[in-house]
Amino acid sequence: MKDSSRINFTKTHFLIVDDNERSLKILSELSKSFGVDKITTASNGDEAKELLSRQHFDLLLTDAHMPGCSGYELVRWLRSRPRDQDRIIPAIIISAHTREHEVAEGRDCGAHYIIAKPASPIILLERIYWIAEQQRAFIDAGVYVGPDRRWKNQAPPPEFSDGRRAKDLSFDIAEAVSANLSDYELADFIQPQKAKP
Amino acid sequence: MTVVRTIHKASSLVLAMRAAGGIHARTALDQAEQTVRAARAENLHGQAELFAQMRNWKATSLHNDATWLDLYECSSGLISICDPDEDVHLLRCARLLCEYVARTAEGERRKVIGDLFISTLSVLGDQANKAEVRTEVLGAFEALIPQ
Q: Residue B21: helix, strand or coil by DSSP?
């Protein structure tokens, strides 16, 4: 995203979900300063589900960890909605804890991005901008519904079978506790990337 | 074999972004920075409230799994309202506390270690302390953690 990139949220309606009141306020104020027209907030996943059932939103920003319905569960529920225009609503998960297995959970539930708290304005705006710029197709593969990320896991091209991806290891999504990833590592983890020769 | 259905429909966000109008990213970011600066005092007040909760935690003699999780919630709350630049030490320590609570569902010494975390967080969150003091305190605290 460049300084001169055009951002147009004048006719958009965001749904922001967080059980922490202050965090909810920060995210709402940031969205407002980006020029978002309408913002609705919810303090838990169940309330968000109800709102999403009744009206259409252009973006869902949700906390990952909430009592009852978590952000991951909320996005998974959204991706299982019957109508395509509802299930393709872009979703960003914002979490205070970004260990690798939690990021993997966010990716697998169908969220577009995972952002580490405290959310910085540039990271938040960039991720929303990328969603609109990339226009990634959506896929429904039964066990996974969400943005198409199949590029990431493509095998090396046949002519480069001993290339850098030849030694790729599968992601460890077990309970191992590891360090939090930075915002750029998170993006790298989730962004589709072409294998380079 | 799993059937993969591709939905090529553009989301309403994409359509709204494509419409004429809007502002430059720089303008949006400048506005957001102003918002962050304006909210700083309120967030410091929020931090003070969380520190008060932590002091109560420290003073309570009855501890169980629920109170242990309360400490996790307090620390998560701190992370949410920290300024990533100005509260870098506090943020690091709050993350460590969450990590510690997540690792130690049980443990005889968790109350003592929780107290130590709270004392350290209080120093790191005290705006009267200079950055050098915070760096020194966090460095000494981290030196206690086995690598």
A: coil
Does B76 sit within 8 Å of A65, measured CB to CB? yes
> Is A43 in CB contact (< 8 Å) with chain B?
no
Cβ-based neighbour number of residue A147 at 10 Å = 24
Closest Cα partner for A43 from A82, A8, A15? A15
For residue B118, give how far its alpha carbon lies from the nearest alpha carbon of chain A (Å). 18
Question: In total, how many domains does chain A have?
Answer: 1
State the smallest CA–CA distance between residue A4 and chain B in angstroms: 5
Structure tokens at B3: 């059937």
Flag whether A4 is in a domain: no
CATH number at residue A108: 3.40.50.2300
Predicted-complex ipTM score: 0.87
Instruction: Return d(Cα A121, Cα B115) in angstroms, integer.
Output: 34
Q: Do B7 and A139 touch (CB under 8 A)?
A: yes
What DSSP string runs through A29-79? Answer: HHHHHTT-SEEEEESSHHHHHHHHHHS--SEEEEES--SSS-HHHHHHHHH
- Cα separation of B79 and A116, whole Å? 10
Q: Is residue A39 part of a domain?
A: yes
Q: How far apart are CA A13 and CA A37, in angstroms?
A: 6
Q: Is B99 on the interface with A (CB under 8 A)?
A: yes
pLDDT per residue, tens digit, chain A (197 aa), is: 888 889 999 999 999 999 999 999 999 999 999 999 999 999 999 999 999 999 999 999 999 999 999 999 999 999 999 999 999 999 999 999 888 889 999 999 999 999 999 999 999 999 999 998 887 889 999 899 999 887 654 555 555 555 555 555 444 444 445 677 777 777 777 777 666 65
Provide the residue range defining the domain that includes B118: 41-143
* Contacts A–B by Cβ distance under 8 A: 164
Domain region containing A124: 13-190
- Structural domain count of chain B: 1
